[in-house]
């Protein structure tokens, strides 16, 4: 079936990669007489407004027996943050509206985890070649203290990873490093800074009808695929096509042990550490009474006490 591509472009993603990729792709679409319409975001959160308007007026749910000549396909050009925002913008619409995604960020964990090419032009050809969308499981969350619900395509973290995201987002170095294609370096600086300052905090995990308590949680992440922080394989066993969540918790230990654990992590051997805990389930509830940073797909939800229930839902991605 022919398609009309509705491109939602965050030119600033990946320190300007979004703009450069969009230019190349649009040139190729123009040359190949492919039908498209472009929407450029001009401020943070603008992608949400654009996509909601498109969902109201233009986008339709996918089905294998559609009797139309041209399918209107949403395509997002941005990083994980833009994709997070677009996915949430579609929360109240039909879950069968497919999303095409061309990774242009600095981390690109969703592309890595789902099997979308990380190189934008390759991802574009992957998208053009696909005739049907693929089912990917994403995270649903309901936070009862602030009464919030939402979706996450990668992971939701409380404690260390959220504090790192917060430090990386606020560090003056991020945009400078992104310009030199060294976005992951900003994570390294932030990791080092936060590693030394983040304290252990008590946490309650409700999983499979049991309560598990930890006195000195350090890193707590619910993830739907193996990667976080720009390619770190925190949960190598996680599978975005299965309706289960992986929850990883690392206890606060001394710095020597932490660096040893990081070495294990880089070799995907973290499961051998007794300070690394892993649970797999279709549902989790996590309660942290201490005010800790919380992030969803690298977007900070706040520094706060939290009571979050997690599950999974199917979404269609075009690749
Ligand atoms: N035109 C814009 N100017 C500034 N911010 C924007 C614009 N368009 C979107 N945003 C915001 O940018 C934020 C982050 O974008 P995104 O994560 O896609 O890129 P990134 O931070 O460069 O990539 P990564 O998360 O991989 O590091 C999103 O919250 C989005 O709302």
From TrEMBL:
NCBIfam families assigned to the protein according to its UniProt record, in alphabetical order: YegS/Rv2252/BmrU family lipid kinase
Organism for this UniProt entry: Enterococcus plantarum
Biological processes, Gene Ontology terms: phospholipid biosynthetic process
Cofactor field: Mg(2+)
Database matches in PANTHER family: SPHINGOSINE KINASE, SPHINGOSINE KINASE RELATED PROTEIN
Name recorded for this polypeptide: Diacylglycerol kinase
GO molecular function, one term: ATP binding
Family matches, as PROSITE patterns: DAGK
Residues of the DAGKc domain: 1-144
Family statement: Belongs to the diacylglycerol/lipid kinase family.
Keywords linked to the UniProt accession: ATP-binding, Kinase, Lipid biosynthesis, Lipid metabolism, Nucleotide-binding, Phospholipid biosynthesis, Phospholipid metabolism, Transferase
Biological classification of the source: Bacteria, Bacillati, Bacillota, Bacilli, Lactobacillales
């Amino acid at each position: 079936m022919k398609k009309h591509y509705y491109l939602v472009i965050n030119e600033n993603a990946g320190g300007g990669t979004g703009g450069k990729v969009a230019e190349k792709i649009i040139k190729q679409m123009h040359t190949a007489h492919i039908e498209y319409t472009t929407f450029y975001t001009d401020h943070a959160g603008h992608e949400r407004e654009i996509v909601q308007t498109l969902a109201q007026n233009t986008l339709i749910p996918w089905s294998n027996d559609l009797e139309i000549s041209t399918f209107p396909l949403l395509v997002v050009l941005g990083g994980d943050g833009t994709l997070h925002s677009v996915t949430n913008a579609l929360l109240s619409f039909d879950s069968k509206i497919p999303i095409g995604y061309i990774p242009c960020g600095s981390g690109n964990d969703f592309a890595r985890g789902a099997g979308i090419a990380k190189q934008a032009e390759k991802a574009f050809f992957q998208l053009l070649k696909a005739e049907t969308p693929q089912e990917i499981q994403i995270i649903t969350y309901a936070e009862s203290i602030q009464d919030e619900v939402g979706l996450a395509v990668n992971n939701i973290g409380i404690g260390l990873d959220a504090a790192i995201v917060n430090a990386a987002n606020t560090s003056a170095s991020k945009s400078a490093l992104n310009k030199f294609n060294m976005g992951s370096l900003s994570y390294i600086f932030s990791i080092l800074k936060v590693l030394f300052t983040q304290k252990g905090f008590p946490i309650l995990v409700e999983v499979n009808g049991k309560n598990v308590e930890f006195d000195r949680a350090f890193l707590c992440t619910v993830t739907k695929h193996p990667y976080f922080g720009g390619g770190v394989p925190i949960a190598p066993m996680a599978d975005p096509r299965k309706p289960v969540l992986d929850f990883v918790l690392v206890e606060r230990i001394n710095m020597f042990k932490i660096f040893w654990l990081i070495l294990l992590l880089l070799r995907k051997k973290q499961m051998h550490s007794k300070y690394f805990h892993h649970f797999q389930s279709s549902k989790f509830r996590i309660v942290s009474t201490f005010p800790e940073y919380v992030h969803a797909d690298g977007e900070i939800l706040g520094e706060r006490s939290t009571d979050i229930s997690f599950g999974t839902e199917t979404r269609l991605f075009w690749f």
